[in-house]
Design a protein that fits this description.
This protein has 137 residues and is an alpha+beta fold. The chain has one domain (3-132): Roll (2,3-Dihydroxybiphenyl 1,2-Dioxygenase, domain 1), CATH 3.10.180. The protein has helices spanning 15-18, 20-24, 64-72, 86-95; strands spanning 3-11, 31-35, 40-46, 52-58, 75-83, 106-107, 112-117, 127-132. It has an 8-stranded mixed beta sheet. It binds cobalt (II) ion. Cobalt (II) ion is lined by residues 7, 9, 54, 78, 80, 128. Cobalt (II) ion (CO) binds next to strand 1 and strand 5.
């Protein structure tokens, strides 16, 4: 199965302050999108190799990103790998006892189908799998 680095998710207290460093680095402009299902507003910076950085700002005080910030402060939150068939990937992982955070893919930013893998199953890293919609039924 094809598997590429899609983006690295970085939790920030706010997009407006969190983006400053990346703009200083010469990246941008940042594009933003609110993902209601995850209670976040995300800001994307494109990198030159098609991977992206995703800044995550919580929209609700009890959202997963807000809890992450309270517990650990700003920093790397997850990495996202792009797969060509998320349903096949999920079935394969489930068959091997990997703990997925949802039974079905959800619609994430950029109209992707996404699922998160519990860090306990990955050696401590929250991993998001993502499949562009339309890439496969
Ligand atoms: Co992400």
């Amino acid at each position: 199965m094809k598997c590429e680095l899609d983006h690295i998710g970085i939790a920030v207290e706010s997009l407006s302050s969190g983006k400053t460093f990346y703009e200083t680095l010469g990246l941008g402009p940042m594009t933003t999108e609110t993902v209601a299902s995850e209670q976040v507003t995300v800001g994307f910076f494109n990198l030159d190799n098609d991977a992206r950085l995703e800044l995550l700002e919580a929209t609700e005080a009890e959202s997963p990103v807000a809890k992450f910030l309270r517990g650990r402060g700003p920093g790397i939150h997850h990495i996202c790998l792009k797969v060509d068939d998320i349903h096949a990937a999920m079935a394969s992982l489930k068959a091997r006892g990997v703990h997925l955070l949802s039974d079905q893919p959800k619609v994430g930013a950029h109209d992707r189908l996404v699922v998160f893998i519990h860090p306990k199953s990955t050696g401590g890293v929250l991993i998001e799998l993502s499949q562009p919609r339309g890439a496969k039924a």
